[in-house]
């Protein structure tokens, strides 16, 4: 009985470790980062469209998430991670790394510039969305696979 319990516990431990290591995979991490940026843009979009009331703290938090995340994002594409975890990363990322990094850093800089003068109302958030959305779209056009 004790041996059976130990085997079950060891198996469970291996499963937990597998899940922990899977979380560290660059494909999983970068997908998580893109979801965070998408959530932040969703918050800003809701405010810009009038679906949510203007909230300076929410705007600041969203812009901070975008800026912080995009500074780290390009580092999640090491060689050998072109496939796996249902990635939508296009091969162009590894073919033109400097441009990919520049686009990510531009989005981070755009968000930082907006943080320096946080949009004060719904209209300001709408203008910010045009700036951020253009940068996002430009990168996705080149570096994201269409599925």
Automatic annotation (TrEMBL):
InterPro entries xref list: Cyt_c/b562, Cyt_c_II, Cyt_c_prime, Cyt_c_prime_subgr
SUPFAM superfamilies (UniProt xref): Cytochromes
Domain of life: Bacteria
First and last residue of the signal peptide: 1-22
UniProt keywords, alphabetically: Electron transport, Heme, Iron, Metal-binding, Signal, Transport
Pfam families, A to Z: Cytochrom_C_2
Protein name: Cytochrome c
Organism of origin: Neorhizobium petrolearium
């Amino acid at each position: 009985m004790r041996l059976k319990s130990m085997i079950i516990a060891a198996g469970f431990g291996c499963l937990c470790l597998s899940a922990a290591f899977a979380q560290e995979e660059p494909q999983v991490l970068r997908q998580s980062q893109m979801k965070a940026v998408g959530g932040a843009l969703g918050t800003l979009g809701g405010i810009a469209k009038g679906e949510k009331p203007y909230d300076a703290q929410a705007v600041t938090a969203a812009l901070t998430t975008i800026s912080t995340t995009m500074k780290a994002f390009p580092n999640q594409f090491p060689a050998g991670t072109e496939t796996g975890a249902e990635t939508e990363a296009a091969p162009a990322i590894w073919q033109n790394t400097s441009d990919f990094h520049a686009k990510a850093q531009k989005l981070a800089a755009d968000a930082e510039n907006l943080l320096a003068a946080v949009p004060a109302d719904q209209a300001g958030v709408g203008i910010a969305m045009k700036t951020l959305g253009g940068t996002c779209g430009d990168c996705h056009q080149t570096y994201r696979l269409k599925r």
